[in-house]
Amino acid sequence: MSRQPGRKQENHKISRELFVLTYGALVAQLCKDYEKDEDVNTCLDRMGYGIGIRLIDDFLARSAVKKCRSYSETAEMIAQVAFKMYLGVTPSVSCSSAAGNEFSLILDKNPLVDFVEELPAERASLCYCNLLCGVIRGALEMVHLAAEVTFLQDRLKGDAVTEIGITFLRKAEDRKQKRN
Amino acid sequence: MADEALFLLLHNEMVAGLYRAAEQGEGENGRCTTKLESMGFRVGQGLIERFTKDTARFKDELDIMKFICKDFWTTVFKKQIDNLRTNHQGIYVLQDNKFRLLTQMSAGKQYLEHAPKYLAFTCGLIRGGLSNLGIKSIVTAEVSSMPACE
User: Fold this and answer.
1) What is the stated purpose of this protein (chain A) (predicted)?
2) Chain A to chain B, count of Cβ pairs less than 8 Å apart?
3) The dihedral of CA A47, A51, A54, A60: what is its sign?
4) 10 Å Cβ neighbour count for A31?
5) Which of A42, A174, B2, B135 has its CA 20 to 30 A from that of A48?
6) Which domains, and CATH codes, for chain A?
7) Shortest alpha-carbon distance between residue A4 and chain B (Å)
8) What is the CATH number assigned to the segment(s) B4-133?
9) What is the pLDDT of residues B7-31, one digit of tens each?
10) Are the C-beta atoms of residues B147 and B99 closer than 8 Å to each other?
11) Does pLDDT of A174 surpass 50?
């Protein structure tokens, strides 16, 4: 009985490690297939997009959250519910523009790079976690929110934290008009 | 829990992406399967190391196979292997009647020819796990009716 909780947590950890290891093998394979970093980044982004458009269904089914009424609510939802659910971490959200359509998610612990020490020298501009950008972009598009998602800072490239920037492409005023 | 959705989707994207790239490039199907299998191999090696850190030493081959069927499969696919057969001379057949990676596809004959693509990664996973436990092996897979596979 007392062993049960420990075992479950271990299994959870292994499950996550399976995902992280698979992702690592995928990036390694893509690096072998493509010479240029931009190609690898694009490929990861495209794959992430494919995952995101399907993941949103799973997310909405599991979390049963209500409709978000503003961009900042959406960003908070992504950070506090989605990231927690799928990756087990909660990035902090900050709004970086006056118009209210640019947000940053700051991750101080990125589980995808658990087993990565550093990027190889010849792959200096590789965005290792570009899949995440694609996932967020795909998921948002399926709820009719067009957005651009990029990495602003990356710990693997020497920055202090990993920062993902989300820029919602339609202005907030347009949305208000639509509702009226 | 929610992680398996992520892994399933990632796996499907990987298969689709690799085959898409192959179509645009040289168009060699065999190489894609090899690539998927070798990716599975790397992952299997790493995973089995972390998994068996604290477990006791295995007595023999059959013990290892049982471990793979029960604990390993449960952790990766949330269920155990349904049937393990052996001829006691080095050949083992693992049968899974509801293989997680195939349940999302329709259970008819329509996609039977595409099913092996989705098994390549798992074959590599098993081969990698066994290799790190000291067993050299060849792993093949067969799908006769979805979603069961051997």
Assistant:
1) May play a role in vesicular transport from endoplasmic reticulum to Golgi.
2) 86
3) negative
4) 16
5) A174
6) 16-117+126-168 (3.30.1380.20)
7) 14
8) 3.30.1380.20
9) 888 888 888 887 777 776 655 566 7
10) yes
11) no
